[in-house]
Every structure is written in C-alpha cells, then in structure tokens.
C-alpha cells in the first residue's frame, strides 16, 4: 500500500481507538463506517476508498434502515472502478 493509503488508514485507526469509544454507539451498518472505510481504502486505493467511505457516511442517517453493507469488490481486470483507465497502446 502506498504512503497516502497508510496515512489515511492510520487516521481512521486513531479515530477507532480514541474517539469512537467515547461517542455513543449509533452505527446503522455492519461493518461500521470506519471499518468500511479501512477496507475500501485497502481494496480500492486512497482515492476510490475514501470516496466510498464518504458515500457510506452520507448514507448513515436516521431515515436509512442500515444493515449489512460490504465493500464492493474491485474489478481487477481493468484496475477497478475507481482507478484511471489505461491509455490505448
């Protein structure tokens, strides 16, 4: 993983260790939004993973029922849905 992805995952881990235990439990999804963001960054890279994490956090509100919401798999054939496509040769 590149340094940006590691830094982002480190910040999320700090949140999980320092802030999350102090805040009231209100997560509507499994896995939690922070765990989802960590998995998304690992699977889709820093840009795509953070975009998926932001979209997930935006869905976390009282009018959403929540439930099981796994990270979508990366499309490895063309580099994934959030990776820039290769230029034609």
From TrEMBL:
Keywords: Cell membrane, Membrane. The keyword Cell membrane applies. It is a peripheral membrane protein. It is found in: Cell membrane. NCBIfam families: membrane protein insertion efficiency factor YidD. It comes from the Bacteria. The keyword Zinc does not apply. Belongs to the UPF0161 family. InterPro entries: Membr_insert_effic_factor_YidD. PANTHER family: MEMBRANE PROTEIN INSERTION EFFICIENCY FACTOR-RELATED. Its main location: membrane. GO terms for cellular component: plasma membrane. Could be involved in insertion of integral membrane proteins into the membrane. This is Putative membrane protein insertion efficiency factor. Residues 65-89 are annotated as: Disordered. SMART domains: Haemolytic (SM01234).
């Amino acid at each position: 993983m590149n340094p940006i992805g590691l830094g982002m995952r480190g910040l999320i881990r700090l949140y999980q260790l320092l802030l999350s235990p102090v805040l009231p439990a209100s997560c509507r999804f499994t896995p939690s939004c922070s765990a989802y963001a960590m998995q998304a960054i690992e699977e889709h890279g820093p840009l795509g993973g953070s975009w998926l994490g932001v979209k997930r956090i935006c869905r976390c509100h009282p009018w959403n029922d929540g439930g099981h919401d796994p990270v979508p798999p990366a499309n490895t054939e063309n580099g994934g849905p959030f990776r820039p496509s290769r230029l034609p040769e």
